[in-house]
Amino acid sequence: MIKLIIYFLLLSTTLGIYSDDDVFYCYDDLTDDELSEKIIVQPLDQYIFLIVSPLAFMCTMFITYSFIKYPNTRKMPGDIVFFISLSDAILCIHWFLTACYYTTFGENPLSSGPFCQINSMFSIFAGTGEVSYNVVFCIYIRLTLKNQFKVIPKLSIILHSLAWIAMITIPLLAKFTHNNGLSIFGTCSFKYHPGFPLAGIVLVLLYTLISLYTIWYFNKAIPDDEKYREIKDTFAKYYYRYIKGSCIIWTCEAISFTIAGFNCSYFHEGFLLIFITIGNSAKLCTPVVLSILRYNDPTIKEQVKRLWRKVWRRDNVQSELLEDDANFYDNIHQNLKFDQVNTIIFGIRAVCKSDLQLDTEEFDHINILRRYTDFKFQNDSISNSDNFKLKSNYNLTTDDFIEEILYEIDNKGTQNEKTIDLKLLQSTLTVYAPTIFQKIRDKDKKMINHLKSFDLLANQEQIKQFKGPDGGKGGAFFFFTHDNKLIIKTLSDQELAVIRKNLIPYFLHLSENETIISPIYGIYKLFRQNVEESINVVVMRNAMQIPSMYRIRTYDIKGSEHSRQVLKKNKKASEVELKKITLKDIDFQNLEQQLHIPQQYRERLRKCLINDANFFSKIKLMDYSLLIIKMDWYTYSQNNPHIKEVEIPNYFSSDLQCIPCINAVERGIYYHIAIIDYLQEWNAQKIIEKHTKKAIHANIALDTSAQNPEDYAKRFIEKVAYVII
Fold first, then answer.
1. pTM for the whole thing?
2. Phi-psi category of residue 77: left, alpha or beta, with phi > 0 → left and psi -120 to 50 → alpha
3. Digit-coded pLDDT (tens) for 634-677
4. What pLDDT, in 10s, does the model give residues 242-271?
5. Is the separation of the CB atoms in 87 and 129 below 8 Å?
6. H or E element at residue 329
7. Residue 696: exposed, middle, or buried by beta-carbon count in 10 A (0-12, 13-18, 19+)?
8. Burial 219-241 (b: 16+ CB within 10 A, else e)
9. Rounded to whole angstroms, how far apart are CA atoms 629 and 676?
């Protein structure tokens, strides 16, 4: 490259292509007419623009058309590649129009004239888009690899918004500050300002650092073994080339911009004008070279091949559309999800096996470390009498509640797991308060066999069917075991801190009271090797206990009425639709009014709800819900003749968790009842949420869902325990 530049310098000097008279002084206060005369597009630059820009435009439009042709390329990050190509296409039009104007009129347009002003806005808009979306791609890779178990709500909208905010804001700022017009390159874009010739180099350096960090993090986040080696090689092969190509081209632009700037400000040498030609050539290389490199982007590679065959061979490839909607990056994330779920289940199974004190030869390669943390209980609800109860009634101390066991898991698997395509990730699983949760598991061991529920082989079909987080607006991950007995759910760090802080009163409440609180059977944290992020998960009882196909309706009841309606007014939903959605308070009032249960259950259930609500108020928790699921046990027993109605209570630790419906038209229907989502503290976020909603609706008395724990418990008792029960 350096030799080539030197050759052109000597050639241009010999032929006199560039003259000292063509150099203008950047510090001169020139009028628009004078600036238009001073800044000229060299003949070589004109030919480059006229010939290469249409070719570059076709290269970018080939990718753009593939996105129109094949819908599955439009998903992220394919849509990012689309907008990069679209930005390049706009720049090609900009350069072609510039050359056409100069060829037609023999001079550059006026800097403040309509042509240059409009053309410069499009140039700045597209240039900003190209840079912004390249950075957005790096952000996307980083965020999606950070945690496969959590959905970032509206990630696509957020990332596109960031790019478009930059694409709109920067041109407008340039316009309002009078910084758009003729540049020293002879095109309409940003005006050159003396004193900042190194800005281009700084931007290229920042982009290079961001890109190299993305590659480094990708290699660190993807396991280094045979299963993932091809994925890593595919990504590295494409992205290394793309980064190398873009950095070389943009570095040439930056160096050309810097030298041209110094020449304009200080040197005033005609032969240095060749760097303007080099800079313009580098600009045109961006859509040509990078488009060719993008043809190998794993997201769109197959679609580009199909389109290429259709264009050049006239093949009918309409039937060759990919049947699988998942793109290259979707497959990476899905594989990592599967393997992490397998690793978590494997670790939990090891914990359950230690509960039974069975031969653990299956887990010999797991290294177990026991430790106590410096976690301190800061809970005023824990009294001396509670500590006395723990010692005298359960032979426990406060140390048992802060104990942690570390399970160091390698990636070898077990003899059984080797018979299937199963991959464990080298990780460390932290087990919190193992003795405490073992006692809670033992309480329900007649209805749930944890070792059986977490059998890896039996759960493979469930794991393969798993598509992603399914935790409502919070974006939490849910996994249901193969026997429908248990749920694995992700926890935020805040929720983990809440349950650990309140674990003593929580344990005592579950142990000493009749309750319908959905119990927690274990809390775990998974650390993957070489990845700094961790995953918090909790194991809980599944309120359904039988397959979801027998679910009739699901209600999430809080006792609030504001924004607590799912079904639209005057629109009747079908029974099929009702089975798929979670209904809320107003829907329950319209469809059910109250629970149709035998009288002997009503008072017990009401007393239970009141007791549980007061308990949550005492430990300062709110936002919990009463989950009511109507399940068709009659059809289930018909399809499973070995199931008898008298055996239904065996599926539950309390008959209050599954109560028969006495409505004559709903034969064999049972209400599955549990209190869920009870790890939310009354904090600043909830206070802001409450008052913001009141302000938006201009109603100080608005009954929002978010209330302080005392008011929340009072409303829950009044609206739920005494109304629907």
1. 0.80
2. alpha
3. 999 889 888 888 888 888 888 999 999 998 788 899 999 999 99
4. 888 888 888 888 888 888 878 877 777 777
5. yes
6. helix 328-355
7. exposed
8. eebbbeeeebeebbeebeebbee
9. 12
